[in-house]
Design goal:
heterodimer, A: about 240 residues, 4-stranded antiparallel sheet, 10 strands, about 25% strand, B: about 425 residues, alpha/beta, abc type-2 transporter like fold, 4-stranded mixed sheet
Chain lengths: ~240, ~425
Amino acid sequence: MATVLEVRGLRKFYGHFEALKGISFEVREGEIFGLIGPNGAGKTTTLRIVATLLAMSGGQVKLLGYDLRENPEKFRENISYLPEEAGAYRNLTGLDYLRFMARFYDRSPEETERFIERAMAIAGLGDRLKDKVGTYSKGMVRKLLLARALMTKPVLAILDEPTSGLDVINSLEVRDIIKRYAREGLSVLLSSHNMLEVEYLSDRVALIDQGKILDIGTPQELKEKYEAPNLEVVFRRIVQ
Amino acid sequence: MKKFTNLLFKEIRELINKQLIFSLVFTLIIFYFIGQIARQEAKRAEGIRRIGVLDLDRSPLSRGLLDNLRLVRFKIDEFETGDKEEALRLARERNLAFLLVIPSGLSEGIERLETRELETYSFLRSFSMAEARYGEIFRVILDTANNYLSNEILKKKWPEISPENLKKPLKSRDFVIVRENRAEASASAIAGFMYAQSIFVPIILAMILIYSSQMVISAIAMEKQNKTLETLLTVPISRSSIVAAKMLAAGIVGLISTLIYLAGFRWYMRSFTGDIAEAASSITTVIKELGLSLTTAGSIILLFSLFLAILCALALATILGVLAEDYRSAQSLIMPLILLVMIPYILSIFTDLRTLSLPAKILIYAIPFSHPFMTTQNILFHNYMAIGAGIVYMLVVFIILVIIAARIFSTDRVLTMKLRWRRRQVVL
């Protein structure tokens, strides 16, 4: 499989605090790559740098061979980012919001409609898409945003804590959506502090703590390597 | 361009929400009704005024005085009683506002060139504008009576000479000179007319600047509060387009809101000032002779100056908006900008900004929003150097502010920069 995203020696300082201490990993075409670790490990910082929101302090990030420092616009054309605490414009209807976002990526009105049809299928919100976003529940907003992130079939979907704050039912639905639509060929870089969720979703995972990657592999490889029943135990054993 | 218009329409749509429409319509209705009521009150006060009169003199002179009062739109209810208290009771019963008591012996006293006192009683029943205007009646009555009586005396002494010529042997012809233009008019009348005609200009300027700035600060703060900014910053559109779309949308909505508020305010003000067009008919020719009417070129210069001031305000508001954490903090952050607009606005109403002391002048000229407040006068008095310098200064300030705003938006400071009131420091 070809490499879509390549991260080499990535460093990030917030003042004197070093949040990322030279992490390296790659995301391959069609794979779901999970970053797992506790709060404050550096997951969101990594995702925000790849999403062009934060400037890196050192290292190199490449998407389809384009360097992030030199071509941030190429990144924005090919990625789709779902922040952990994202919202949508409350005065727009769900449909208007999808149309507004689709127009940044489309090449024709027909393509806009195709994006929206796909988003409608992903979100599964039916007629509620005609209502204003301000009337949606948290779960509905999350599904709408996930649909927005996936509707344009980006080269790389960046999902930060995709089930954050959702109840069990909504979390299961969101996981199913990610799993189902990732199989259509798009690459996914996701983060979560819920290690069981990442284990269920990801093809490969990187365990990250205090700005450093501790290990990378498939969930199965890691469990075998550390003789653990799940990734939570793997993480605990590595840290200890 | 398609992406920019997509963003622009979204921004306008976000800004024109139900709350804004309700606020605009409500304010318009309130202004209209207050204006209508005030106008009715003013008309009532200016209508035919009824007064009660107790004539204790009953001489041809006092009868002549009453005829003169009728000529100046007084309707007279005359009491036949000879008792003042009885007349007061009757006036109260008939709900009259005034009672005029002409003393006995008025005629004889005047013949002997002695001063006599008229007594006036005012029944104050409220503190409305109409009641306040009735106070002027005292002056009208006294002036009418004095004029009539002095004319009668002079006519008797020197029947062959006009009393007016005796009372005012000197008359004046007033001329006003503006630059090389000269016209026959009084300087106070011209200044009063120009003030009345241009009273809306600083109001428009201040409102547009404040509204537009508030819109753009709120737009950025709402993006942060609703957690939509991060997503917007990752879509394939340049950061400068995001800034420009927000500024343009705020400018458009701010302008529309201002025009609507102004229409309501104009309805309200017309109840006090009357229709300027009607009042202007006699003085318009003089204004044109003096070259004090704003030409098309002058209007374009004024609009350009205003446009630059709006751009400066929007750029500054964009920077302040980044510092806001949410909509509430945005409302506090707008205060410095409002102050910068209000200082030249208030000063322009009470004084000529160009005649201030040097330190005050430096301070005022350093505020970019001061320049449009001075532009109208500078255009009319052909101070083109001052206009040019103001425009160049605003342009420079705008470019600096836009560069700062664009730099903030093109780096991660747009997400990390915020003003924390508790620590009182900027966190970068």
